Amino acid sequence: MKTSLTWLNEYLDNAIDLHPKAVSDLAEKVERTSVEVDSNTTIASGQNGLVVAKILSVIPHPDSDHMVITQVDAGEPEPIQIVTGAPNVAEGQMVILAKVGAHIINRENGELIELNAVKLRGELSYGMLVALQEIGFSDKIAPKAFEAGIYVFNETDDVKPGDDALVALGMNEPVLDTDLTPNRADMLSMIGTAYEFGAMLNKPVTLPSFELVEYEKTADSQVAVQIDDQELVSKYALRVVNNVTIKDSPLWLQKRLWNAGMRPINNIVDITNYMMLTYGQPLHAFDLDKLNGSDIYVRRAKDGEKLITLDGEERSLRSGEDIVIADESEGLMLAGVMGGLGSEIDNNTKNIVIESAIFNPSLVRATARRHNLHSEASSRFERGLNWDETLNVLDHAASLVDELADGQVARGQIVAADDVRKDIRLSLSTQRVNDILGTSLETDEIANIFDELNFVYEKDGEKIVVDVPARRADISIEADLIEEVARLYGYDNLPVTLPYGPTTPGKLSRQQRQIRASRHIMESLGLNQAISYVLTTSEKSQLFAEDKADGVVTLNYPMSSDRTTARQNLLAGLLDDVSYNVSHFVPNVALYEQGRVFIANEPNEQPKEIEHIAGVVTGNLQKSSWQKSKQEKAVDFYDIKGIVESYLDQIGVDNVRYVATERHENMHPGQTADIYIGEQYAGFVGQIHPKVTKKQKLAPVFGFELNLFTVFDHVIDGIHFNPISRFPQISRDAALLVDQAITNSEISATILETAGKHLVDVTLFDVYTGENLPEGKKSLAYTLTYQDSDGTLIETDVNSDFEYIMSELQSKFNVEIR
């Protein structure tokens, strides 16, 4: 929130020193005691040479159809000639003059520039008449559009030629922009901030006063309120003001608004915003004559209901969830968020209704998120309001309308809801405070802190019973009071001690070590780590999911339409990463990702989180070169399967099986295998279906996805490594003629089961099908390697073992040894 220290001083008896050095010290104290300060600045931002000037005369420029020559009184002995093209310039106006030598902000780049006398179409101009946007005001806070011309003071603004324009406009007022935490709703108001600063400076707070004059005409004769559901609103009251005059607000009010980052609009709207800034209580004003009927309804939105809000957007309301303030035929505003265009205050408004309320904060928060309509009002309703001020603010606003808009306040408030706030009384002992903070404070010292905070309390020996004020919705338990004591006592003053007692050295858990090892292995296999969004679309979240019958985890209020659902697989995100790289001319991609997927549980239960690891490869495994021995080779199924095999082997998993499958809808039915560890399913590997990759114009992409919880359950603890044998190997080759239905895995498994202890490797080096073979047959050629760790093998032992293996193969599979 932007806090003008000049304005704040009105409530603190000018206790704040506005010298730049003192303001910087105050900002540092606020950061150490209360909330973060984003900036400490003024709108002036180093500008100078700006004065108030009166236009004495205006004559046409002899050589221009859009410029004029003016003589202005800037409080100097002689008038100053200014040439300008402002469309609204007129004799008698009080305007802002940037004199020769003045420094003003360049609207294009925000830098300071110095003004010099210039000739415009042959006529000298000794300065420049400026709009607010030309001296540091953004379009967001300037009351008039830049195209409307120069800024003109009103007759009631109490300025004279020669006055410093920066002072007149409040541009020299120091402003602290604080970054409030969600719990400090009290500091979204000037009074709440005054209490906070008063506590830090040990100064009392003077609350604003006003005098309300009511006229004979009653409010309840003009309007009535009906509340359909008491859960929607805790407090709801109206004031009616008749015969108002819509005009610009006086300069003092406009200054307060634009220094707070708000744009002045007209006197009625400005009063409601001024009250919101002062008390933290949002108000809304309706044009009474635009209502259909005399009844105002506080209700939930209806099916198919539409509402055009003040920003000109048509909103489709959600039945039963959005709170609507309505008349007999249509909605008037989206309660707690934004008013409706149909009942807007305009220049023809004569009779108004001012509303003050406390709406259900949960519903307001949901509405603001659903419509992406976070307003100054909604931020305050969401965080909590001061229940003690709801009706008082309404009276203060009505008195200002009487004063600034010549209105007549109708007699009586219309109070439709006025729930009583439950008092919060908290007991705190001196011993407890000192035990928590490590201090040795006396009871009176703690009581003095509550005096500074302006809390009402009672002392009972070493106990203090505090009545928490309504403005401090963030205080509800004993710990909150102790935090207040710590803040005001000063965090820097708390004693510092070293930790004592036994300490436990930190270390990674078994699962954390295995995850870290998994990453290292993947990177050693040539894959780069990728990190994808956990949130994705509903379609992508289930693209490679194991069971689409499992419920998806969706967000009620997503940030965007492509971040609505928690992922159930990692491959979809990796596929997006491949597409991104290929579109940026990186065709050879090898990526892996380790992270969690989310499976929905029963309603109102947290989703199940499962650790996965996945990888993808596409493009060429190696590039061709001028050397004939190095030819270009595209990745294939065996490359990705080899990565999975190497990973599982290095992580310490054995007894792995690969079973061909067609059950994965988005994987190639002829090049996909399910992965089993023993009898437990662990994941899958294969080619992503061409129908998926074709949409993104990708070359064949191969991938895998594994359930790490399953993998880690089968990791063999205490892996033993055998020394490399110093003795020579002996190999035997065998070509086997077998039926087409017999697989390599079956042959290899039989060889390993049958062989003696010296067989160390079985390699399939050739597969042949074609001419010169009987129909339905194929030839598989193997190399069997023998080695002994303790001595040199004897030829006869190897031959004997080899012959035994061949006989077993002949017996089991009816193979023919070629």
From TrEMBL:
Its main location: cytoplasm. GO terms for biological process: phenylalanyl-tRNA aminoacylation. Residues 725-818 form the FDX-ACB domain. GO terms for molecular function: ATP binding; catalytic activity, acting on a protein; magnesium ion binding; phenylalanine-tRNA ligase activity; transferase activity; tRNA binding. Residues 421-496 form the B5 domain. It catalyses: tRNA(Phe) + L-phenylalanine + ATP = L-phenylalanyl-tRNA(Phe) + AMP + diphosphate + H(+). It is an enzyme of class 6 (ligase). Pfam families: B3_4 (PF03483), B5 (PF03484), FDX-ACB (PF03147), tRNA_bind (PF01588), tRNA_synthFbeta (PF17759). Residues 44-166 form the TRNA-binding domain. This is Phenylalanine--tRNA ligase beta subunit. The keyword tRNA processing does not apply. SMART domains: B3_4, B5, FDX-ACB. InterPro entries: aa-tRNA-synth_II/BPL/LPL (IPR045864), B3/B4_tRNA-bd (IPR005146), DNA-bd_dom_put_sf (IPR009061), Fdx_antiC-bd (IPR005121), Fdx_antiC-bd_sf (IPR036690), NA-bd_OB-fold (IPR012340), Phe-tRNA-ligase_IIc_bsu (IPR045060), Phe-tRNA-ligase_IIc_bsu_bact (IPR004532). SUPFAM superfamilies: Anticodon-binding domain of PheRS, Class II aaRS and biotin synthetases, Nucleic acid-binding proteins, PheT/TilS domain, Putative DNA-binding domain. Mg(2+) binds at D474, D480, E483, E484. Tetramer of two alpha and two beta subunits. It is found in: Cytoplasm. Its cofactor is Mg(2+). Its EC number is 6.1.1.20. PANTHER family: PHENYLALANINE--TRNA LIGASE BETA SUBUNIT, PHENYLALANYL-TRNA SYNTHETASE BETA CHAIN AND LEUCINE-RICH REPEAT-CONTAINING PROTEIN 47. Belongs to the phenylalanyl-tRNA synthetase beta subunit family. Type 1 subfamily.
